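Milestone M4 deliverable, item 7.
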Amino acid sequence: MTDLLERKSVEEIRDSKNCIYLLDDEDMFSQLGHKVLLSRKVPCLLNVAKIRYNGQTELIYLTEGLQNYLTIMPTLPRDGVYMLCAKVMESVLKVKNQGFLAVENLDISMDKVYFDPKTYEAYLVYLPLSAGEGENGPLFEAELRHLLLQFVKQSSTIISEQERCIVDALTNGTGGGLEGIAKIFQNTKQSSPVQERSLQLISMNPNLQITFAMRGQAATIGRRKGCDLTLDFSNQISRLHCTLKKKDDSFYIKDEGSSFGTGLNGKKIPAMKEIPVKNGDVLMLPGIKFKINIR
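Output delivered:
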C-alpha cells in the first residue's frame, strides 16, 4: 500500500483473489466517492463492494479476469512495458479529470495496478475516502513516478536512447505534473502497439532439444511427415497426435484421438475436445514434455 493511504490508517487485508481494505475510522468514508464508483462513470476503476465487518467498513475490489504487472509481464513484447505505462497514465488522468475524485486515494502499489490481458487497459483501486489535502499532490506524483520506474526496470535491460531518456525523466522529475508524466510515454505508446500473441513449445527433455514456434491459427503435432511438428522418435506418438489452435488471441490443445493420449500439467486431457492452455503450462506427449511459452 502507498504511503499516502497508510497515513490515512487504511488497513489492507491480503487475499489471493481480490483487494480488500478496512477503514479504521468510519468518518473517513466518502459517500460521494462511493457513488461515483458505483455509477461506473470512470470505467478504469475496479468494481467495489462495501460491507460491514466487525463494526468496520470493508471494501472489496473485484479483480476477476485481470492481471497485475508481475503476471502479465511475461506475455509482453520487449518494449510493451512502455505501452502499459501509457495506459496507467491514461487511467490516472481520467480519475483526476473526473472532478469528484482525488488521485491521492488511488492505491498505486505495484501489485494493485491491474490490466486486461486482451486490451492491456489499466484498472486502478480507488478508495472512497474524504478528500486529501492539496499538499499530497507532490507526494502522489513521486509515488507514481516510482511505480512507473519499477515497471520499466523490471521489464528488461535499458538499451535504447529513448529508454534511457524515459528513465532519466522519471528519476529526475522533469516534465512536471501528471500531464507531464503522461507526455513521457506518448511517443512510446505509438511505437509499442499490442502485438499478436505467439506460442512456443520448448522441450524439457535434456536429450531432445526441440523448440517449435506455432505459426498461423493451427498447428498439427504427430509422427507422420507433413505435421507442423513431426515427432518420429516414438511409436507411441500417433501419426496425428494433437493439434494446437488459436482463437481470439487465446490458445487451445486438442487430442486427435491418439492411442496413448495427451497430457497437460500432469493430467490426461479428453480426446477431441479443445482445452485452453496458458503461459507456463506443461504439454506431455509419449516420451517428451514441452514447456508452453506464450508471448
